[in-house]
Amino acid sequence: MKQASRKNKPKNTIGHQFSRILREGCMIVTTAVALFLLVALFTFHQNDPSWSQTSSNAVIANAGGWVGAWFSDFILYIFGYFAYLFPFMLVYSAWFLLRSNPEEAGFNAKLFWLRFSAFILVLVSGCALISLYLPNLHADLPYESGGIIGIVVASHLENIFNPTGASIILLAIFSTSVTVFTGVSWLFLIDKLGLVFLIAVKSSWQAIAASGRKIAKLYQVRKAKKLEKLAAKPTQIQP
Q: Mean per-residue pLDDT for 74-87?
């Protein structure tokens, strides 16, 4: 039995190391892909040949070449302005996968798929909110500000709940999805922001009070000098 347990330990160790190396490699590749997408998105040009339009331009302005022009056009067409957050969310997902180990007892597959579903809901609700609040801000995009997803979701919710109701529902879905996806509590964030605000107000008040004391001290010094000059002047006696 001891020999069998000794034989199993190297296998488990090798499997654990291989899993860790595989997850680290996935993190590196995902980061590289996200960086490429970010560069392609920021250098998007409407005249480049891409997924939604054809062009006869021989020179491609996108920093990612024709691949970057194609993917940036496709992502912006689907997600609109929210596509600029997509690379960061992709890196965060890879980082979460790096921290999770399916071979360990602490790994929760349900939590993993729950966060993946929240990731999708963040994208959908975010695109719909942009379509509702920034419908005309799409001059530099191949389609609308919220992409085709935002247009479809926002239009359906507007027909059912009107713009006000659709906004409330989308904000609730977006806030809840962000909490589930990132694990950050809005109450904790509000508490920290309030603490930072109070510290800033206290620091500002202390700075204003210190400046007031300096001004008062300077005024007293100048007043004392004037009194000294008046006292030093000889009094003239008129006949």
A: 88
